[in-house]
Specification:
two-stranded antiparallel ribbon, globular
């Protein structure tokens, strides 16, 4: 494998991180608003009350803006795998590309096709047919998330595949193993429901804006109540599924869970505290200014009272034999590539599961070639490689806590909002309405922190335990990476500015038809997705 300039690797990582984080500003609203639109339209079809159609039309218009810009930011990410991560694409393309191809052929095409019918079919389809179209849009958007998260889960738990020493690639073995990867299932529900939280607070925040200004009061009150109830259920689901993901990380990615918890030494159950806040010091491998809650960490992570959690120092020690074995595996694989000897293949096969740790050692080997390590230097290379198995603890620790703290804030906000809404005391609670309005961007931040936790916590691997990140990038020049990075930042900033401008504009305009009367009859009207108002 070619050793890539570390600056190019860092720039490639930074560019992909920015691209993903930019794109993920739009994804949660798309996932959540589709099902909220379906719920609003369902009530309209069942009751025939105009106000629920107005709700579906108005919130659908904002969904359309978000969907269009989200698509534009997402397409380029797939090209980056080929342009900036060619070694990863060669090594893992079968596993990663298959779910993405299914996503494009099944979910994205279905979603995109039915979005047009949803926008323009109000006066051309029956109520029941249009409702079915709205549900298909919701299904398509969430199926897109499913297949993308199946691909991502394979990087964390490469189920359904084996390494082929002939092609030097991970080869697809089992479609069932890939789709029903436990990480994929938990991550899909957790991420999708996080989108429902974002959509709920989005609807609540804008409705709160109308209530504060005493505009569209009936429309805003009903939208607010539906969003609050939808949000509290979604927040409980997010927290529950987060616990499932934590348990999976404890079993399959112990370095990630140790970094998340800032656990430098193996825990002492059941007395080990859960660290609420601290300043992890990666260089000195210790925490400063710890604030902890006793007796919480062990049951929280292990779901027992006596099972220890391995700390990062111990994980480093445990990695030593695997690094030494991996060096031998890489050497045997290289010999087999030349000799095709069954003896070399047998040696490699016996140590195959440690190959990734041998590749991790290449940055410390003479000339980045583990086969060139003198026998008396192997221990030095192993010791130098051991700290590399850990992610950036400060980033992983705090991105997780910010996500958790925000989730608890959402739960409290939704619970209080739902109670006051059901009691019809919303308009007297101006402070709550202002908090809802100013909290609109917080679920997006929470999902970003969640992705930072998941991806930073997987380091130093692109494929956990198999392929190190520093060997995964393409061999571009630094100038090329700087140029493309600046281009992406400028382009995506324009997209965000366009999104914010359009969202603010149409949110301020409010619903086109304001049904103030609770029992206003449903009457024909122009679609809210007529492009003429948007062009004005």
């Amino acid at each position: 494998m070619e050793f890539i300039n570390p600056d190019v690797v860092d720039l490639s990582r930074f560019q992909f991180a920015l691209t993903a984080l930019y794109h993920f500003m739009f994804v949660p609203l798309t996932l959540g608003l589709t099902f909220m639109l379906a719920a609003m339209e369902t009530v309209y079809v069942v009751t025939g009350r105009q106000i629920y159609k107005d709700m579906a039309l108005f919130w659908g218009k904002l969904f359309g803006i978000n969907f269009a810009i989200g698509v534009a930011t997402g397409i380029t990410m797939e090209f980056e795998f080929g342009t900036n991560w060619s070694m990863y694409s060669h090594f893992f393309g079968d596993m990663f590309g298959t779910p993405l191809a299914i996503e494009g052929l099944m979910a994205f095409f279905m979603e995109s096709t039915f979005v047009g019918l949803m926008f323009f079919g109000w006066d051309r389809l029956s109520k029941q047919a249009h409702l079915a179209i709205t549900y298909l849009v919701a299904l398509g958007s969430n199926l897109s998330a499913l297949w993308i998260l199946v691909a991502n889960a394979s990087m964390n738990m490469p189920n359904g595949a084996h390494f082929d020493p002939e092609t030097l690639r991970m080869t697809f073995d089992s479609f069932v193993g890939v789709v029903f990867n436990p990480d994929a299932q938990a991550k899909f529900v957790h991420t999708s429901v996080a989108g429902y939280v974002a959509a709920s607070l989005f609807v609540m925040g804008i409705s709160a804006f109308y209530l504060l200004r005493k505009q569209h009061r009936e429309f805003a009150a009903r939208s607010f109540r539906m969003a609050a109830l939808f949000g509290i259920i979604s927040t409980v689901a997010v927290i529950t599924l987060g616990d499932v993901l934590g348990r999976l990380d404890y079993e399959k990615q112990p370095t990630k869970i140790a970094a998340i918890e800032g656990l430098w030494h193996t825990s002492n159950p059941p007395f080990e505290p859960w660290i609420v806040a601290a300043l992890p010091d990666d260089a000195r491998q210790e925490n400063h200014y710890e604030i902890g809650v006793p007796l919480v960490l062990t049951p929280l992570i292990t779901h027992t009272f006596d099972q220890p959690i391995t700390g990062m120092h111990e994980l480093e020690e445990e990695a030593g034999p695997r690094i030494r074995s991996g060096i031998d595996a890489v050497a045997a694989l290289r010999r087999y590539g030349v000799t095709h000897s069954s003896m070399d293949l047998a040696q490699f096969t016996a140590q195959e599961q440690d190959m990734g740790y041998g590749l991790l050692a290449t940055r410390h080997a003479p000339g980045q070639d583990v086969t060139a390590i003198p026998a008396d230097r192997v221990d030095d290379v192993v010791r130098a490689t051991q700290p590399d198995i850990l992610p950036n603890v400060f980033v992983t620790f705090w991105s997780f806590r910010l996500m958790v703290f925000l989730s608890l804030w959402f739960f409290a906000l939704f619970a209080i909002s739902a109670y006051l809404s059901l009691k019809r005391r919303l308009e007297r609670s101006r402070l709550l309405l202002k908090l809802c309005m100013w909290s609109i961007p917080l679920p997006i931040l929470a999902t970003e922190f969640g992705w930072i936790t998941a991806e930073a916590g997987r380091q130093p691997w692109t494929v956990f335990g198999w392929l190190p990140t520093f060997l995964s990038a393409s061999s571009h020049g630094v100038s090329y990476m700087v140029f493309s990075l600046i281009g992406f930042v400028l382009l995506y900033s324009v997209f965000i500015a366009a999104e914010l401008y359009l969202m603010f504009k149409f949110a301020r305009l409010g619903p086109e038809h304001d049904s103030m009367e609770p029992h206003a009859p449903a009457t024909p009207q122009a679609s809210a997705f007529d492009m003429r108002p948007m062009a004005s």
